[in-house]
Fold this sequence. Notes:
This protein has one domain: Nuclear Transport Factor 2, Chain: A. 26% of the residues lie in helices and 30% in strands. By secondary structure, the chain is of the alpha+beta class. The protein starts with a strand and ends with a strand. A hairpin with a 2-residue loop joins strand 4 and strand 5 (105-108). The longest helix has 26 residues, at 58-83. The strands form 2 sheets. Strands 1, 4, 5, 6, 7, 8, 9, 10 and 11 form a 9-stranded mixed sheet that branches.
Amino acid sequence: MDRLKPATDPGEGQGQARPGRRSFVCRLGAGVSAVLASAVPGLASRRTGSGVGSGGSVGDRQGLLEDELQVRRLHETYEMLLDDGRYEDVVELFAEDAEVVFNGGVFEGRRSGVRRLFVDRFRPALAGKRTEVPPGLELEVERQPAVVTVAADRQTADARFACSIQVGAPIASDSQLVRMARLHGEGIRRWWEGGSYEASYVKHPGEGGWRIKRLEYRVLSRADYRGGGSRARPMSVPALTKRFPEDPEGPDRLA
């Protein structure tokens, strides 16, 4: 069972800078905003270039730019909550009828499939935290620019954000050494993945602004990280093949 696990320790302060681990995002032209208005209060946020067109009145363009910024802040909140290991809070960023596509599976519904993915599957492996791209694989990941497009009626939006994360899955062994490792929260094989989040959003004024409607995690590269970043080698990972409830942490359907 694949588990996302980016590389920061839970318990780090919210909004703290992580220059080394975030250098990949900085190379995409990211900057930090002081206030997060419409997602989770108190978290810093980051935005890149604008995806809003020049048509319409000044008021229309301003409204679209404001919505674009809120969507970017929502994604930044999503990444920061994963960095901090706050998986229950991550789930609250999704719409009730949201779905997440991950490793060949589709997880449906905020309180069912989406929660099963983040809380049951990701949390045990401290999944979703960002890490640097291994040497030699930077260009392939950096080809994914950050783009946000808000619909003219300002009720929906689409976006793509690059990601560079650490992933993990339990070691399939019943040896005494592995059992002892599991008792100490270990026994997990970890690797690096780079790719993009392809997302769509919907505006819910009654629920505090924008929510994630659909999130698809697309992998461009994987590399074994056990020998260190400079020794990382490409690798493959099997897609999910069992649905819930046969797999207690599995998807509602296969993609």
